[in-house]
Amino acid sequence: MNRFCLIFLGIFAIAAVSWSSLVFSNQRAYGAITAHYDENEGKAFPQPAPGLAERGKLVYQDLGCAACHTQQVRRPGFGSDQARGWGERQSVARDYLYEGRVLLGSMRLGPDLRNVGARQGDAAWHLQHLYDPKLVNAESSMPAYAFLFETRQIVGQPSAKALTLPASHAPAAGYEVVPTDRAQALAYYLATLKDAYAYPETSNVYVEAASKEGEQK
Amino acid sequence: MASASRTATAAGSSASSSGTGRAAQAAIDASARGPVLLFLVSAIAWLLIASGLTLISSIQLHRPTFLADCAWLTYGRSQAAGLNAAIYGWGFNASFVLVFWLMARLSQAALRVPSVLIVAGLFWNVGVTLGVGGILAGDSTSVPWLEIPTYAAPLLFVAYALIGAWALVTFRSGGSGRIFASQWYLLAALFWFPWLYSVAQVVLFLQPSRGTSQSVIAAWYSHGVSSLWFTAIALAAIYYFLPKITGKTLRHYDLASLGFWTFLAFSAFAGTASLVGAPVPAWTTAVGVGASLFLIVPVIIIGLNHFPTLAAGAAALKSSPSLRFILVGMIAFTVSTLAWIVTSLQSVAVTTQFTLVGSAQTQTVLYGLFSMVAFGAIYFLAPRLAQREWPSLALIGAHFWASTAGLVLCVAGLTLGGLAQGAALNDPAVSFSAMASTLSPYLFMNSLGVILLAIGHLAFAVNVVRLVLQTALCGAPTADLFREAPSLEAAR
After folding, report:
1. pLDDT of residue B15
2. Could you say which of A60, A106, A147 has the minimum Cβ distance to residue B354?
3. Taking a C-beta distance cutoff of 8 angstroms, is the pair B279, A90 a contact?
4. Using a CB-CB distance cutoff of 8 angstroms, which residues of chain A are in contact with residue B217?
5. CA atoms within 13 A on the CB side of A161
6. For FRET with B191, which of A16, A130, A207, B149 sits at 20 to 30 Å CA-CA?
7. Which of A15, A30, A79 sits opposite B268 (nearest CB)?
8. What's the CA angle centered on B398, arms B396 and B401, to 5 degrees?
9. With a CB-CB cutoff of 8 Å, which residues 117-156 of chain A face chain B?
10. C-alpha dist (Å) from residue B430 to A110, B107, B214, B309, B433
């Protein structure tokens, strides 16, 4: 193997086939996925996320939440995703159609968050949880994100956004804990994060995957 | 082909002396001195930074309150910053050291206009500094292995373009006429990285591709960099140093080209195996799993090249610290590739996916294989660049044992912890807090390992800094150190 041209051509050919099959052909295939128009509801799904949720997602990205949390529900029979109540159906490609940055994640030190909004749809719960996870689960192993909140002196009327904290976490008298814009955006994002719509392909996958024998084959 | 292989084998075992004398060799080494020293010193600075950040994030795994009030060092950021400092700071700078040393020596070519490389090296390191700083400041992209914010990426790309082009110029300007196995792997790595990096930057960030095709591309990128950059460069170094240090010709060298092409072809497609179960086209993951299974072929062939050669020259293990590091790297290559094959099987992935087993895998490739081989290579080449002996043999020994023990602790802790985590995740009755307390001892074991690694890196850094300072301060190096002491050139 002493011919530079041959070695280079071989390396080039493998790179070209790898790119065209895994990257380029997938880009083309995904280009063909369209939104699903539901005539009964008069809407197309998936629906684009509201602006505040998009801003919250940027906070999710910046804090590296994906280091411990996935955003994908696997099919029944592969892991315990459904048994843990992470989603009524598995995630499908169409769910992520309008996401500018897809954060499937590859580590589960915490629960999957793809449908966390269906479990906890209250942004106030998420604010408490972010301020100190032990407020909602004494055993939680999630770090606190208190730096997303501001402890400040109450001037005049207390803020309507101030957290209501138990005595163990309450600030000094005359002070209040107020979420920053970033905390509010993140809490809103989490509270609205869910794939509620059942696409035709999800029901197909569901039936097939539910029969365990066929799947083992 | 057969006769060509035999001559190439001879070239491998005595690359430094075929056709050129010791003086020509010293001239070639001298031309590489400036850039290689710059890359070496930057690599070590990043190694220490990465060790610190990794220590912080590994402690946070079992003590979530540790530094939690500091936004810059919250786990999601410290973990990503540590990984990127290790990959682009330590890993790539060390790779450049190996690339230029091996290219210059194997091609028998002096580096031309080394100042270009110095400029490129500075650009690269400014880019990595911006990138790691950007992650800590909150500009991470959150795409695994590509967390470096998009504003730092052009710097990295331009710097790499210069470095890669210079490596090719060095290769083509050479006078050796033979292309040895190390050079195949180097050429593949030099070509693959810019391809992977530019495609990933364009279709993930500039013109984001739709939906979960992004995840396919991210998996293609991260496995590509892991196997076709880091593994390829480590293999190139093993192919060079193994015959050189043991003084034995490579065994079964006729098979090496088959090993190379199968390694390249199957690694190029194996990355998507990690996406099994994800909402991506099923054929994509099937291709990944299939290619992963076939990786057994290059593992066997490369093992047939390496292990019998080492066995024939095992006596050199006593005298050469470099060879001891390289032996750990050879074992890590076999173990990590076999582990990748096994975990790509669906029946195993159902337990190991999304667990610390993945981190153990990354640690085995980046640290066990690449870093250990890079340490071994640096222990061999730095004295030849500086024309000076290592200041302390004890520190080399400390580095080897701290790194090896740390590596074993980390990989064992993460693997055992990952298996426990997988079992816990698959049992819906086990809560996440219960899982966290199960994992705690394993994560503690991992932190101990990270501390040992950091101690080893300190010993390494002290030795290198002393060597560089002695060379800089004590004036004229002993230019005939290696000529008068032929025992140091074990291959001759």
Report:
1. 40
2. A106
3. yes
4. 22-23, 26
5. 13
6. B149
7. A15
8. 110
9. 137, 139-147
10. 12, 59, 32, 49, 8
Q: By C-alpha distance, which of B489, B477, B474 is closest to B387?
A: B477
As a dihedral over the C-alpha atoms of residue A158, residue A160, residue A162, residue A166, rounded to 10 degrees, the angle is: 90
CB contact under 8 A, B69 and A146: yes
Reading phi first (left if > 0) and then psi (alpha if -120 to 50, else beta), residue B73 is in alpha
- A146 to B68: CB separation less than 8 angstroms, yes or no: yes
Share of chain B above pLDDT 90, in %: 81
Provide, as residue numbers in chain A, all residues whose Cβ is less than 8 Å from the Cβ of B4.
1-2
Q: Is the CB of residue A162 less than 8 Å from the CB of residue A178?
A: yes
Tens-place pLDDT, residues B166-211: 999 888 887 667 789 999 999 999 999 999 999 999 999 999 999 9
With a CB cutoff of 8 Å and minimum separation 6, the contacts of B140 are: A61, A62, A64, B76, B77, B80, B134, B147, B149
What DSSP line would sit under B81-100, residue for residue? HHHHIIIIIIIHHHHHHHHH
Supply the DSSP string of B457-480, one letter for each residue.
Answer: HHHHHHHHHHHHHHHHHS-S--TT
Angle CA B194–B198–B200, to nearest 5: 120
Give residue B340's Cα distance to chain centre.
17
Contact A109 B139 (CB under 8 A): no
- What ipTM does this complex have? 0.91
Phi, psi of A40 (to 5 degrees): -65, -40
Inter-chain contact B427–A95, Cβ cutoff 8 Å?
no
Residue B334: CB partners within 8 Å, gap ≥ 6? Answer: B299, B303
> Shortest CA distance to A133 belongs to which of B338, B64, B55?
B64
Token digits for B492? 């001759």
Q: Minimal CA–CA distance to B245: which of B27, B30, B492, B6?
A: B492
Contacts of B232 in chain A (CB under 8 A): none
Q: Is residue B225 packed enough to be buried (19+ CB in 10 Å), middle (13-18) or exposed (0-12)?
A: buried
Q: Is the peptide bond before B298 cis (omega within 30 degrees of 0)?
A: no
pLDDT tens-place string over residues B229-288: 999 999 999 999 999 999 999 999 999 999 999 999 999 999 999 999 999 999 999 999
Instruction: Kindly state the tokens that stand for B381.
Output: 């080449």
A6 touches chain B (CB under 8 A): no
Contacts of A144 in chain B (CB under 8 A): 64-65, 68-69
Chain A and chain B share a number of CB contacts under 8 A equal to 214
What is the pLDDT at residue B9? 38
Task: Give the single-character DSSP code of A135.
Answer: G
- Mark yes or no for CB contact A11/B139 under 8 Å: no
Q: Where do we find the tokens 């719509």?
A: A197
Token pair recorded at residue A50: 């509201």
Per-residue exposure over B268-285, b if at least 16 CB sit within 10 Å of its own CB, e if not: bbbbbbbbbbbbbbeebb
Token pair, residue A99, equals 């996401």
Instruction: For residue B135, give the nearest of B81, B76, B75, B56 by alpha carbon.
Output: B81
